[in-house]
Amino acid sequence: MRTALPQRRARRGLISGLTGVIIGGFVFASMTAAGVMASSASAAGEPGSDTRPVTITAADYYGEGHEGEPFPDLKLTVSQTAGLGAQGIEISWEGGKKSTPPTGTGGENFLQFAQCWGDDPTAPADKPRPDRTTCQYGAAGTTGTSRYGFRSNEPIPTQDLSYTVPGPDSLTPPQTSVPFVSSTTRDGVHERVERIANGAFVPGTDTLDVNQNQFFSQYTTNEISWAGSAANGTGSTKFEVQTAVQSRGLGCGRRVAAADGTETAQSCWLVAIPRGTADNGEVAITQSGLFWDSWQHHVAVRLDFRPLGSGCEIGAAERQVVGSELLATAVSSWQPSLCSDGGDIYNMITANEADAVNVANAATDTAPLALTSRPYSGEGADDLIYAPVGLSAVTVSFAIDRFPNPVTAPEEALERTGLPFTSMKLTPRLVAKLLSYSYLYSLPNDAPKDHLAGNPINLLADPEFLEINDPEWADQAIAGIGVSDMLLPQGRSDVALALWNYVLADADARAFLNGEADRWGMKVNVFSSTNAEVNPNGALALPSESFPKSDPSKVDAIPGGAGELNLITWRPYTNDLDTSGYLALRGDAQTVIGWDTNANPPRYTRNPRSLPGSQAVIALTDSAASEKYQIVSAALKNPAGEFTTPTTEAMTAAAAAMAPAGAQTQVSGFDTTSEAARGASSAYPLTMPIYAAVNPYMTDADARGSYAAFIRYAAGDGQAPGAKVGQLPVGYAPIPENWRSQSVTAANVIESGLTRSSAPAPTANTDPTGAGPATGSVPVAPGSSTGGAAPAAAAVAGETAAAAAPVASGEVAGALTSAATPADPNSGGLAVTLPVALLAGLASAGAVLIIPRLPRRT
Fold first, then answer.
1. Beta strands 668-669; 659-660: pairing state
2. What is the pLDDT of residue 601?
3. Alpha-carbon distances, residue 2 vs 5, 13, 424, 848 (angstroms)
4. How is residue 483 annotated by DSSP?
5. What domains sit in the chain, N to C, each tagged with a CATH number?
6. What are 433-486's pLDDT values in tens digits?
7. Which DSSP helix (H) or strand (E) runs through 39?
8. pLDDT above 60: residue 842
9. What is the pTM of this model?
10. Could you tell me how far CA 299 lies from the centroid of its own chain?
C-alpha cells in the first residue's frame, strides 16, 4: 500500500498540471474572445437614432398656408420616438403662450396630449395623420376634455356631422360624441364605444359613458388634459407611453404581420392638441379637443415600439432567475437575445435577495440563479460563486410642479407657475426625516399629531431643505401630502438595507433618529426613533431590510366602526421600485379621497393622478426606472460632502471605490463609512452592484451551463448601452472591465462544476474562481479577515494585489501596469485576461489535489 501511494500522488500531480494548462488555456481563450466582444460592444454602444430626440413644428406638419392655429410657431421636441416600451418620455416645446390653469373652465393657451393608434383613412398617403377616433382621450374628467358635449348653435363642421345629433328646436343645442374605436377586434371588426353614429343616437346606449369604458378610465388613461407654458411660451411635461399590455385599446407594440410576411410591432401616434382661449361659439374652453374646431390644429409624431413578447421559441428550456429587482429592466432587454438560436428562457422573479441566495447556496441538484448585492450570510460555508452582472443605483425621484405663493413670490417665479422642478438636493438627515414620517402631513388628517408638534408640514417647508436648495423652492406654497414622505416598496430587500446604511453613516442623521432636534427644532417621530428612551415602543432596530411604518396613529372612517385609516392605508406601500417610479411619472401620490360606503365592499378610494402643473410626489425607485419613466432624481450628499446624481460617471466612480465588506472577497459594495468612499467626491452614494450567484456543486449540468451562458451574455454584449433589444438600458452603468473578467472566470467554473471529497469544509467565505473581487480597490490578502485558508489562486491574487495596494481615486482601476501611451496597441482586456487565466490554471491544478479531500454534500 505504501509503495503505491507515491505513484498515485505522481499521477495526481501529472493530472493536476495538465488540468491547469487546459483550464488556463480555456479561460485565456474565453476571456480574450469576451474582451473582443466587450470592445466591439462598447464601440457599438453609442445611442442610435432610436434614442435621439425628434423635433416637429406646426409649420412643417401642415406646410405653408395653414393659418389659424392658437400657436402657429409651436415647436415640439419629443425625447424618444422609437424603440419604445412601457415607459415615460419628455415633451418640451416653445412657441406657446402664457397659460392659465383650469378653474371652472379648461384654462387658456395650453396643450393637451394623447396617444392614438390608428391612421386617418382620409389623409394623403404621403402625409399620414392620426385618426381621432382611435385616441385614448376623455377620461381625465376635467372641463374641455370629454369626448361628448353640447355644442353652440354655430355651424357644426362637416367633419363632426356624423357624430352629432341636432337639437329638436332652435333652443336646444346639438350634441356631439366622438366614438372610441379600439385596436381590438371581435369577429373581424374593431370594437367601438359610441353614443352617436350617422347623425343619430345609437339604440341602447342611453347610459353609455364614452369617457369611462372597458378600454380606459380616469385611473388608467395616460392623456394629459392640461400642460401649460411659461410667460416666454416654453414648457415641458412627462408623458406615459403605454403598450398593449397597459392599454389593449391602443395595442401599441403588438406583433402584427407586415406586407412581406414578417412580423413588426404596431406603431402609434403621440398627439398634441393646442387649445387657445375659447372654443368655437363659446367664451371659454369647455368643449372636447377631439371636436374638429380644435382637432384641426393638432400636431402629431409617430411612435415606434419594440415588439411585445420575448420572441423565444416555443418549447425552449426555462430557467428561474430570482432576486434583485435592480436588474429586472436589463433582464427584460436581454431576454430576446438570450433565447435566440435555441437559447433558454430566463423567467425573472423579483424577491428578497437574501432568500434567493439561501436557496441557491443550499442547492444539491438544481436551484434558481440568484441575483443579489450581498453575499450569503447564513449558517455554514458560502458555496456560491458570484459574477458581477450589473451596476445600478437606488434613487429618490420626484415629480413636483411649481406653485409659487401668489402673495410673496416675485413676478419671475409667478411666471413659471405649473412648470416642473428639475433639481433637488437631499442630505442623509432629510432622507431620514422622510423615512421616519416626521413631517406633519405624513400622518392621516385628524390623527393625533402632538408628537410632531412644531415640525414642518412637509419636506418643502423644512428650513434645512430650503437652505441647501435653489432659492426658488422658498417661493413655493406646495402643501402636498405626497412630499411629506416617500412612496416606498413593500417587503425586505438589499435596497432597503443600503438606504438605511447610507442614512446611518451620517452623524447628523444618526443624531436625529436618536431623538436630537436639528438646529431648526425639528424632531424625529418618536415611534421611528432608535432611542429606547424616546420611542414608546422601544428602539427601532436599524439598519433594516424593510421600511417600517411604526407610528400607530389612526382615524376611523366611521366613528367606532370599520375603515381604519392608519399609516399604511394613508400612505400605502407600492409593489416594487418600478411601480414607485411609474406613479411618480403619473404624478400619483396615492392620496385618499375618503371612505366609499357604496363600494362593495366599502373601502377607501384614492385620488386619480394629478395633472401636470399640480404634481407633488416623491418616490423611492432605482436608476433604471427613473430613466425609463423620465422622472427626476434628487442629488444626494455623498460621504465626500458632494451632491451627486446617478449618472453613468457617478456610478462608475462609486464602483471604483467599492471593496469587500466582509469575508466573502468575491462581493464588493460601496461602504459609505470607508476612507475610499470619503475620497470619491464624484461618486453617487447609493450605487449598488448586482451579482449572479450560482452554486457550482449543483449536479444539474444543464442548469449550470445555462447560468454560465446568462452570465457571459450579461457581462459581455449585454453591457453595450442602447435602447435596442439585447442592449443595456439607460439607467445602468456598464460594469468595469475587471468586473467582466471576474464574471467570465466565474462562468467557466460554474459550467465546469465542482465536486466534493470527505475532508472538512473550508470555514471561510473564499473565492473558488481565483479571480479576486470585482472592485476598484484590492482583494483581501491572506491572513486578513477571511477567517480561513483561501485556495492557492486566491492567495496568489491577494498577494499580488496587496503588493500593488492602489488607493481608490474615484476612477476604475486599470491593469497592474504602467499607464498606456499613445504608441501602445489596444489589447482590450488582455492585460487582465492573461494573469486571470494563469490564476485559473493554478486554481484548477490545485483543485485536482484539493477536491478529493473536500466533503461530499448529501
1. antiparallel
2. 82
3. 5, 17, 76, 21
4. G
5. 4-44+312-393+645-853 (3.40.190.10), 49-303 (no CATH), 402-614 (no CATH)
6. 999 999 999 999 889 999 999 999 999 999 999 999 999 999 999 998 999 999
7. helix 4-43
8. no
9. 0.80
10. 30
